[in-house]
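Input:
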Amino acid sequence: MAVDELLAQFHEIAASPKKQLEKYLAQGKKVVACAPVYTPEEIIHSMGLVPMGVWGADQKVGEAKKYYPAFICSIMQTVLELGITGKYQGVSAIVIPSLCDSLKCLGQNWKYAVPDIPFIPMTYPQNRKPSYGIAFTKAGYERVISDLSAATGAKFSEVALADSNRIYNEHNAVMREFAEIAADHAVSAAQRSDVFKSAWFMRKEEHTAMVKQLNAELAQTPKDKGKIRVVVSGILADSPSLLEIFDKNEIRIAADDVAFESRQYRTDVPEDPNSLDALARKYANMDNCSVLYDRDKKRVDSILELAKRHDARGVIVLMTKFCDPEEFDYVPIKRACEAAGLLNLNIEVDRQMVNYEQANTMIQTFREMF
Amino acid sequence: MSEEVKKQRPAPDPNSAKFKLGQIAAKAYSDCVEAKARGEKVGWCASNFPVEIPETLGLHVCYPENQAAAIAARGGGERLCSESEGEGYSNDICAYARISLAYMKLKDAPEQNMPQPDFVLCCNNICNCMIKWYENIAKELDIPMIMIDIPFNPDYEVSEAQTAYIRAQFWDAIHQLEQITGKKWSEERFQEVKKISGRSSRAWLEATACAKHNPSPFNGFDLLNHMAVMVTARAKKEAADAMETLLKEYKENHEKGVSTFRAEEKYRIMFEGIACWPWLRVTSSGLKDRGINMVTTIYADAFGFIYDDFDGMCRAYSRVPNAMCLELARDKRVKLCKDDHVEGLLVHTNRSCKLWSGFMPEMSRQIGKACGIPVASFDGDQADPRNFSAAQYDTRVQGLMEIMEENKGGN
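Output:
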């Protein structure tokens, strides 16, 4: 299949999660919603359930205002809004981790705002690397398993989890490969986003097969040069209006540090005779993310390293409004970029935004500096 | 032009609880200054970090949250917040954090100074924002960060897994601090600390429970000030003594039929949230002028740390405000409202605190329903004066008062 056809398929899936949900339900599968930023999708998958990401939508907030004050990020607001307004109808449960303060509140609000979809908490440790942290992660996973069984009747087995761990590792590898290929080939910012976004709405083995095909096709195409290469960082980078501005200004996303995109695929499940222990160790090994304790701010170094490795001329931070973990990290990122001679932009984004004029002006100005 | 005639305030009674509590708060800062001058390592400490650890080890720590509140109450909030914003920090970030990060840079604030830290003690049972704030301090000053992670508990009870996780971190923190400071943990000293903390806690719980009397023997705004000592110094003998004095005074007030609420107590409310420190006078007089006494807050319950052993201490730190699920948080407040015959709930929707405000609309609806009381909320901020409107506050309080009046069968 030609690259364009494949990319059109990714776009179709990324743009219509509701259709994907209905497809899986029609196949008799049970679907479990996964809230940001990290949930143990491997467990859900291994129990024969379909994990689907819920990161909100670009829309106005109405009903969720009864639960959240205005200064909570629009991702949380719109996830709740979609739940209240029945857009997740048919979903068997939602797993919500408590990795930031607004996520803690999402779980508590969910119980009362969307009572027909059971809330399953996933409590991750911040001190995730010592053995006691790994044990606590495992206890959290065991609780998720027990709640999933209660909500869906599905059974857990370590053997099935070992298979799912492998499937997720393979998916991680093809997504990493895609990010590298997209850095040098004719893939627009919007198309790149479609590939990452569609992953949230598909069983990973299906997505892996499609991305493998895309990677193979793209590798055959000539390298696409002459654009301004940047690293994009933030929670989300999926707004079509914003990505259009990138494309219009010939800005190429050479690499990303986006929670919704590459942060998901950096860390594999390690080898371990016990598959649940292995998955707990995966979380322990994760780093370079604003919601994971990072005394040394290694995330900042990792962004610089990413920029260097990908020959990027600047770092564009897409700052989700009211996301304080990202807002705290921005200052050290900005300082490090300045010290390294990398241009950086901080563009505030919000799921309720309709006017991107300010972002347009900032990106145009950024482009003119080269 | 006539000269302003200032009223001569009577000299404070050195035996009063107010005086003693004020002294403890002031001494916490001066002790740190002296320790630093002696060459000891001093720390900055999160308000709900297990105080038993620095106290048992004999470490001197000061509390950036208290400092930020003091700076904000004395009019410096906007200046320091703006300083941080100039560095690139969003004005959506907690104002305590913005003030503290600015202070780290400026190293001077006439409203409330304190020594710069040699280490930071972080605990996120109050919020995850704390982690980010302390990460930035530790990285910028290149100092050790002791991180105790007490996760938000989605359940009513504290699980064995959570207790074990916290216990291991407490010991890890103790060992790290022994290495950093050269001081040693003593089980004997811990037992003393636990005993004193228990004494302070029991006196605090009993004192705040005096609000059950009608009229209440105290103005609830007192609690906003006194709770700072409970949070940071409850393991000190002076604090236990002062809290017992406070209890004695409240009992005496009740017997004499007097109160620190200097008006006729017509209505009794619960106040929800951190105080609006830059607007303390406005928020206080908006209630007092209407005869509304804020008789209780969750602080009345929250800082009674009574436990039997080390594991009990681990569990106690999982049951602080902001670490609890909605149901437990609600039930604690419902109990306070019922015990203290509360007639209305006033909620501070605090721009600085996503966690405290993020499920408050639902929880306050449930509290209102369970107690059959009206609920009103106002927008404000614990330390950034720009996020508060006196007119909105006045309107909301007036509305709350009118419903309480109607509920009394008035006109």
